[in-house]
Amino acid sequence: MKARPKKANATRTISKRTGYMRVGLMHNPPHAGIILNEDFLKPLRISLRTAAKNLSIKYESLRLVVKGEKGISPSLATRLSIMFGNSPQFWLNMQGNYDLWHVMQSENKNLKKIKLIN
């Protein structure tokens, strides 16, 4: 019998501080605001007030995002992509992975009741 090939390691580092990201949906992904704070603002020594002013948003809104209490909207994702030279999808994908994982955890029992229609 032919041996099965080993699966490739499906992880890659996204940050020294936030751990590993799996290809697909990772286990308990970090909130995009935490990544913003830990991997962008702090290393560049940008204060929340300075960032909020540069992004033309309220300080309180940005504070809630970096604490993980408010999500990154498409508008904020666009602003962040301009500020840091990446794409809006970068921010929205992180936020979407976080939101999806939490929905799947909180609604797990109800989701299992749904039957595939084909």
Structural class: mainly alpha
The fraction of residues in strands falls at: 5-15%
Determine the N-to-C terminus distance.
35 Å
Helix content: 40-55%
User: Which runs of at least 5 residues are low in confidence (pLDDT < 50)?
Assistant: 4-15, 19-24
CATH topology grouping: 434 Repressor (Amino-terminal Domain)
Rounded to the nearest angstrom, the radius of gyration is 18 Å
CATH superfamily: lambda repressor-like DNA-binding domains
Number of helices: 6
Briefly, what CATH class? Mainly Alpha
Going across the major beta sheet, what is the strand order? 1-2
Q: In total, how many beta strands?
A: 2
Integer count of domains = 1
Order of helices and strands: EEHHHHHH
Mean pLDDT: 84
Q: What summary fits the major beta sheet?
A: 2 strands, antiparallel
